């Protein structure tokens, strides 16, 4: 029997959800590890609502799985959350906001919340998402507002952009499901230019 608030979906939907979530987690884990290796010391890093004062004790993969278990949203929301994260990072480059161990969890819960509100007809409120994300309601509200201003309230996603990000996640899925394949470069749409953010046509390469 499902726990209170736990997402109840068909077997096929659950499989799609798990694959999308695992692909997103894999990309963010690699980006986080890379940025941790070159990060500015926490005490010297630029102030940001998305940077925690200490590293959360839960892994990126476990945190994404927790959100997926309790958020009650469609798999498409995670694709849109990925797009929103990319969009926010591109616009926030002047503030040196990066995906690392101090920021990735807050970035995730905030972009998923925004995607759910934009994509799904019915969703849980901010208090529920705050509980799922392990933060206070005040923090959740503040992060949501900071995100919206950070992306200039640009929440619309074209079918073309959605399709490009789906392709990136699909590539990640295929690689994860073929462990015996020879080493290869992985791709991540955490963009470096406005053209990339719009089309993902020129993807940043990350070593596996």
Features:
single chain, 208 residues, mainly alpha, Cyclin A, domain 1, two-stranded antiparallel sheet, 8 helices, 3% strand, globular, disordered N terminus, disordered C terminus, protein kinase binding
SSE blueprint:
Elements: H1 11-38, H2 60-70, H3 75-91, H4 104-119, H5 126-133, H6 137-150, H7 159-176, E1 186-188, H8 194-199, E2 204-206
Antiparallel strand pairs: 1-2
Helix pairs in contact: 1-2, 1-3, 1-7, 2-4, 3-4, 3-7, 4-5, 4-6, 5-6
Pfam family, one: Cyclin
Protein name: Cyclin
Family: Belongs to the cyclin family. Cyclin U/P subfamily.
Structure description:
Keywords: Cell cycle, Cell division, Cyclin. This is Cyclin. Pfam families: Cyclin. Belongs to the cyclin family. Cyclin U/P subfamily. InterPro entries: Cyclin-like_sf, Cyclin_P/U, Cyclin_PHO80-like. By secondary structure, the chain is mainly α. It folds into 2 domains: 11-158, Cyclin A, domain 1; 160-206, no CATH class. It is 57% helix and 3% strand. It is built from 8 helices and 2 strands; from the N terminus they run αααααααβαβ. The protein has helices spanning 11-38, 60-70, 75-91, 104-119, 126-133, 137-150, 159-176, 194-199, and strands at 186-188, 204-206. Strands 1-2 form a two-stranded antiparallel ribbon. The chain is globular and about 40 Å long. It starts with 10 loop residues before the first helix and ends with a strand. Mean pLDDT is 79; it is low at 1-10 and 192-208.
